[in-house]
Amino acid sequence: xxxxxxxxxxxxxxxxxxxxxxxxxxxxxxxxxxxxxxxxxxxxxxxxxxxxxxxxxxxxxxxxxxxxxxxxxxxxxxxxxxxxxxxxxxxxxxxxxxxxxxxxxxxxxxxxxxxxxxxxxxxxxxxxxxxxxxxxxxxxxxxxxxxxxxxxxxxxxxxxxxxxxxxxxxxxxxxxxxxxxxxxxxxxxxxxxxxxxxxxxxxxxxxxxxxxxxxxxxxxxxxxxxxxxxxxxxxxxxxxxxxxxxxxxxxxxxxxxxxxxxxxxxxxxxxxxxxxxxxxxxxxxxxxxxxxxxxxxxxxxxxxxxxxxxxxxxxxxxxxxxxxxxxxxxxxxxxxxxxxxxxxxxxxxxxxxxxxxxxxxxxxxxxxxxxxxxxxxxxxxxxxxxxxxxxxxxxxxxxxxxxxxxxxxxxxxxxxxxxxxxxxxxxxxxxxxxxxxxxxxxxxxxxxxxxxxxxxxxxxxxxxxxxxxxxxxxxxxxxxxxxxxxxxxxxxxxxxxxxxxxxxxxxxxxxxxxxxxxxxxxxxxxxxxxxxxxxxxxxxxxxxxxxxxxxxxxxxxxxxxxxxxxxxxxxxxxxxxxxxxxxxxxxxxxxxxxxxxxxxxxxxxxxxxxxxxxxxxxxxxxxxxxxxxxxxxxxxxxxxxxxxxxxxxxxxxxxxxxxxxxxxxxxxxxxxxxxxxxxxxxxxxxxxxxxxxxxxxxxxxxxxxxxxxxxxxxxxxxxxxxxxxxxxxxxxxxxxxxxxxxxxxxxxxxxxxxxxxxxxxxxxxxxxxxxxxxxxxxxxxxxxxxxxxxxxxxxxxxxxxxxxxxxxxxxxxxxxxxxxxxxxxxxxxxxxxxxxxxxxxxxxxxxxxxxxxxxxxxxxxxxxxxxxxxxxxxxxxxxxxxxxxxxxxxxxxxxxxxxxxxxxxxxxxxxxxxxxxxxxxxxxxxxxxxxxxxxxxxxxxxxxxxxxxxxxxxxxxxxxxxxxxxxxxxxxxxxxxxxxxxxxxxxxxx
Length: 990
Prior knowledge:
- By secondary structure, this protein is an alpha/beta fold.
- It contains 27 helices and 40 strands.
- This is Disease resistance protein RPS2 protein.
């Protein structure tokens, strides 16, 4: 019983305690609630302090919170949720003792949890314990295909050098779709990620065609480790900018930009600390809009590199049988070095061993009908057409499509193309011819910037279409264009092929001798039938049916140049909408039908018509003509007197070409002139003339014309003046000693002389007339010994000097040159001067040539040194020299006897200089180098080095395989370097 009593006593005591505790919950419910709210307020203040610290560290330093802190914040959110679930209650609620008891108990439980969180938070609130370290940047790279060939590797190295250059912060990498921009940049990204020492963080962001600012910012923020909350919009750019500036430095690669991206709007700082922003795009214009400091164009693979890639995708060389190999090589060439196309076509033909399948694939590619080649339309044409669709206007797209009329891989003359556009009405007729041409150049620039058309070797004279781009254009226009250019066809198209929907037809570069029938093409506006060649020769005879042009009343452009036509049908006379009639170099053409009805004609090119018996009837009606070419006629065939009356009825005439025509300009009066005017005086009356070429009877006639032209300011209007003159005076003989010197117009700034006999320029010019020249080219003057000999001739404005095939040439100056001579010379090119031993004297180097940027010397068989004369100074400088080319100089032993400081040197090409054993260059080893050295390994290894560190410094820039490519570029550039200024003196005949 005692045990029972004790048990009952304990049970009663416990029950009483519980009752008291429950009563306390009820009685102290308000006090408990107030205490909980107070402690919860303290905890929330603590949470604000910790969150602010987390945000600052995360955003500014990329630090991440400890797991304990993350859990602490999560627990706090749970408490807030529980407190909210308590509710406030109403009067009825507080009268209910059970409800008061239940709520009070929950309040006390929450209070204990709050105090526990306070204790845990106090342990790290005032220290760095809330962080572990900087956000771990992922070390894994991006999947990237292997680069094929040295050209892509060189582009990769060029981009890497720019990234490492402290002077370059923004780099634009551009090129056509599928050319490999992304592949190269992924390789660079992976390489930079592996290094880790050069940049604090390296980021890859794909932008793509659909630009979303918030998505782009979110991607960058995620890689920085500071993701945005959903309500952050306007402050995103500020937070990103602050976070990036807190980095030591960074590289951001923006891949596949289609439109200009404002870095400031995104939040990417552009102002320093060695950080880099690199982007890839198809459009050069984006690089300009985003103010890139360096633009690098990615171009296609070479034939060898393309074949290597193609073989790999086909399945290896073992797969390609000897029978298939020649066709497979042609298939690879048809892809024209575009990696995307090589991969797509290669995979479509992978392990294919049937010869007919290969032949069909080649035919599909050649005829631009690639529907049967797997994935070509989807991947290759789909990618390229996206660029076409993004061109700025329908007019630009039309100009692009027009280029498809030329044969595959054809070098398109820029001037000819723009003149076609003008005649077609693709450029508005407003503001004069030069305004139209300027607009045409602007259109062409947009196409080049979009990589839809490309310059030939970087020049501005020729462009071409990539074959696959051309295939795209032909596919787009297959209902409106008939393009059979360059197919070597002997038969003209069948009559059923001349459908009514045709707008443009190109049959140029074929063997067609007979154009038959009566094509019904009322919408046809361009017809290109020129260059009908058979085995490189103009075809024997090209004929047209009498009614061939009868139903072509919309025709605006007709080009029949370089064909064997002897006569043209009368239906040509009814083409009243014709704007351009081009018959150049139709050497067999004897007669032309009347042009009297062609009132809209703007271009008439009759140059090289050596068999033409007379000028066509109706020239006086061509009141809108702005370009007339009657040059290169047969001087032995008379066309009668000079057509001065016809010319004066052409008020719009801007271009007149009559060099080597049937007439020579004389100081005698013209028999056809009513007012006894000379031919030169008649030409002066053409007020709009901007380009003019002609022959002058002799120096007296030329000087008479220039004096009269200057008096009437005629020469000031000319952009281009090309002439030939002779010292064979009409009617009398002048001794050499008393020969009158040529009076060069004061507006002349470019001069080219060929095949003249003189020792130095002062023999035929007043030296004062040469002061304004900017460009000078002298070619084939075999007696010329010196550019200047007596110290009087100065060329203070000359920037470009080219001397070619001067077999007696001994040097630039025989004696000390005037101090102003060649002060502005930037490019010096010497080719084929075989007696030349030394080019530049030491005095000329030190005192005059400090602005020289390019030196090119080739094929000078007896040259021993570039700079002559011993010097007491151990060092000289060419501070602006960027390029040095020395080629085929078998006796060359030295460049300079001392040391040359050339801190700007970026390209050096040495080819076949077997006796050149050392390089005199002194290069600042502290500055970052960006250089190409194109030379053979064998020659490089034979060089003698005073400074072994210099060889080690330059070794990485040796590119033996680049030598041939650079030589081709230089040789092409020579053809484009004579930039015509106001006047161009082209030839002097003695």
